[in-house]
Design goal:
With about 200 residues, this protein is mainly α. The protein has helices spanning about 1-20, 35-40, 45-55, 60-75, 80-90, 95-110, 115-125, 130-145, 150-160, 165-175, 180-190, 195-200. The longest helix has 19 residues, at about 1-20.
Length: about 200
């Protein structure tokens, strides 16, 4: 029963977050790569335009996004953003083994990029490799803890394997890095401390 109350509180807090603020950190796969792209001397405006277009297609037509990423890789071989977009495309289209084949090497060659670890973790989770996915998400957060969507994915996976305490801590991280609302932050803190009546009253 307490677990049910806890989940209701978390759903209400999540609803409040959607009303308070849209999490933009991970909506655009190119955002974490902005700095690295600037360092790539061979990058051109036309290449950036093509990458941006392919990334936006992921939300509406992942198959076409993958096709565009493939075309980009013909002229910019091994470009990390194009490889990541192609890996995401394969994951979204259900080709999980191919997604992992592409994303796993990126976690080594682009080890400092949280987004790569996040996408790799999502593919691992879809394959049922939950513990490995959790470790990968934790690696992403070690690189940059201010990524709400990574915290939320971690909370979901911890809950899926029955680690409620770890799930609550990850969910608190999601709240902490998502909003500036004192009310929602107080409610999240109360929930994490198992003070359910106080969390429900916020």
């Amino acid at each position: 029963r307490r677990a049910g109350r806890r989940e209701r509180c978390q759903r209400r807090l999540s609803g409040g977050l959607r009303r308070k603020r849209t999490c933009r950190h991970l909506q655009d796969p190119l955002r974490p790569f902005a700095r690295s792209r600037a360092l790539l001397s061979e990058a051109t405006a036309s290449l950036d335009t093509a990458l941006s277009h392919a990334s936006h297609l992921l939300g509406s037509d992942p198959e076409l996004a993958g096709q565009q990423a493939t075309e980009i890789l013909r002229v910019a071989r091994d470009h990390p953003v194009a490889l990541m977009i192609l890996g995401i495309s394969h994951r979204l289209c259900g080709r999980l083994e191919r997604a992992i084949e592409l994303l796993a090497p990126l976690t080594r060659t682009q080890a400092g990029m949280p987004r790569v670890h996040y996408e790799y973790a999502m593919a691992l989770a879809r394959m049922g490799l939950v513990d490995e996915a959790i470790t990968t998400l934790q690696r992403a957060l070690a690189l940059n803890p201010a990524l709400p969507q990574v915290w939320l994915a971690l909370a979901d996976l911890q809950r899926a394997v029955g680690r409620q305490k770890d799930a609550d801590a990850a969910y608190a991280g999601y709240i902490r890095h998502s909003v500036n609302s004192p009310e929602l932050l107080d409610a999240a803190e109360a929930l994490n401390a198992n003070r359910l009546p106080e969390a429900e009253s916020q």
